[in-house]
Protein 1
Amino acid sequence: MINKIKVTLFCTLLLFLPLSFSNANISVLLDTRTVSPDKLPPSYDNVVFITWDGVRAKWLNQFSESGYLSAAQSIMNEGGNYTVRIDKNIPGTDQGLAALETGYGPDINLIAELQFPDNSEKLAIPDGLTISERLKDKLGDSITSGMIFPWGFHELPDWENDDMIQLGNTTDPIFENIRIGKDVDYWFASENVTWDKDVAETYTAAIDPFINKPPYVVGWSSPVLRASYLGQKAANFISDNADNRIYLRIHLTEPDKIGHKSGEAQVPFATGNITNEYLGALKDSDIATQMIIDALKNAGIYNNTLIILGTDHGFTKAGHDDDPYPNQSNIENVQLAFYMNKPLGFSEDGILSTTQIAPIILSVLGLDPRTYSPAFPDPLLWDFVEPTTSSSTTSTISTSTSSSTSTSKTTSST
């Protein structure tokens, strides 16, 4: 009898083992994450959200794990490495930034194509949808927000009339509706540089920060495009505002710019090799990231600050314009690595969508993403109710949905 029981139990285990294994695989393939019900998000005083423009997960992971990108490595080791997918927009800088800043796809944030090309339709994210706007609306002066970007989204100099104007095709307008001093406390981009039309580096950035003709062969001679320059601006912002809660958003364009000139878009990447120029741009971005970490620590606010380090889109040797997941031609265009320095209460297994980053930031800063309209398109990662002592079950929720939005692709990329 005992032997029969043993045989029966063994056969039962054999019967269920494949099912369990299969379900585990299905859980990953369907982009699901198991979470505890009745779970509140963690709470942090500050959030610093850093993106490096145009970095595929392969290089970020490889050089962070090796220690070459030591700042990125420290963020990853302290918190976690999360896979984040582009599933609602064409991979590109404007589309990626809009999804990250709002939590919506182009059906709501309106940014379906790049705004840089001369023939592109110039559109702005609608009023009230960005993280900074929502924080200032709910938290007011109890939080200080800052946005630091490499190029101007607002006005640039009008040399002839000694004035500031919107220069149409040379300026990216996606953040035009963010009012400096009201929707964001601190803004820095190319329009904040002290301009002198007789100084090559500032004149170049004013006319076209991505100009590629002599004497600006490097293509980004303006200091505002340098990661180290922007990193110092971010460090100054932190030290100047450490007596209040902080939300800091900084975007570093160096990897993308160098990638288009002498890196990802060049022949060496066909063999899987990384160019020295592109690797140097990653290192420059890492140094800028370390400036931010040091500033947080020096100000005594690091321990209660969530740092998110990610990218707006992936990048392959052929460029990054592609379809959203799951219809992309190359998974490395749409499957990204995001590092976070604090635990968020859910596993690194499974896959997030880029449109889940904004609700995460709002949640950990104390806002309830369930209250916003339009509703966020992806399932939320917490239940936003007090935990109960009687609950011990788990539930599985989808964290990434495929987009059915059809958008036309552009041939130019940034």
Protein 2
Amino acid sequence: MSVPPFCRRRPARSGRLMLSLLWTLLLLATGGVAGYFLARFMPDAPSASPVSAPTGSPRIAALGRLEPAAGIVHVYGPVGDRIARLYPLAPGQSLQQGQPIAELASAEERQKQVALAELELQELQDRFDAAKQAGEAKIRAAEAEWQQAMAARDQDLAAQDARLEYLTQQLQVAEKSLERLEQLRASRVTVPAEEYDKARLAVAQAKAERQAAEALRRKTLLSYQHADKVGQARKAAAEQELREALARFPLQSAKARWDHARDQWERHRMVRAPISGQILHVQANPGQTITQEPLLTMADVSRMIVRTEVYEGDVERLRQALHHGSVLATIQAPALPRSLRGSVSDENVISRMISLNRVFSLDPRMDRDRRVVEVLVPLDPGDTNLAARFVNLQVTVLFELPASSAAELPKASEQ
């Protein structure tokens, strides 16, 4: 059964209006989000000098960071060890080189290793001394025996030399007596045969006795020479035995182990300040296990600089300005209570290498990728204490070019 047209239900006009309104709001929201992300992440059109002063200005603007001239030092400890005691530390506190920072838990164990190495060295030294004394006693005994064997040599040889002298004279007397008798017999003087025979026998006997005395002296001399060689050999053998005995004791390696243990204990029983300077940041806590992270950060803040990144198009202007004298620099940052002053007087502080910037402007419209040259700007001594409170602060540096030469300097836009 069909329904009459006037009885059919028509959609409410208000429902269609509400649906159209919802679709319109959804499209507007989608467009707004897309526009935000495009404005946030799409790169802006590059400019000739992102942080430079306007073309023709007697100033050069650049970004930089406040740093100690000697650099920042991170203090580390032995990885895996534990901090047993942390000395009172706070940012801004001054430390002297070698001043204790933290005591390590491994110090007690390392001290035991030192004591053990020292005990081993002492025991080895005692055994070495005992062996040395025994060997030296053997050497003295061999030397005494040798000296005793050689003590009577001079007296014995002197006595035998005296006897040889006596026997030589006795032989000479006997020979003269025999010669006289022979002369008498030659002159036909009667010489009893018995007397002549006695004279000849006396000569023969004197010769025999003299020859025997000479043989005895040679034998005695050879005996003493042999005893001398034996005594020297025994002494040399005792000395060699002592050297071999002492060589069995590795004293040098034991002492090296002791020195190494002491060095390790001294180096690792506590962490000390590597330089004299001021604490910038403390990360260590008592009881924590040491990792590869630094325990604290410190620096010598007696001299401060600004590590400035000058746009590549402005570097030649800065170099040319230095030919007319020092270039003053004004350092500004919202965090600073006042501006800082510095100056550049030498081209040696200007790097010879162009690199990508590492300091980025807080303005989202500025280029994120720029070619810069690093320039180190020393701060005036009067601003050092203030700058030391803001290490690593990003600042803006304005180089005041000499007014007399500003017209002669090339502009960044002409490079």
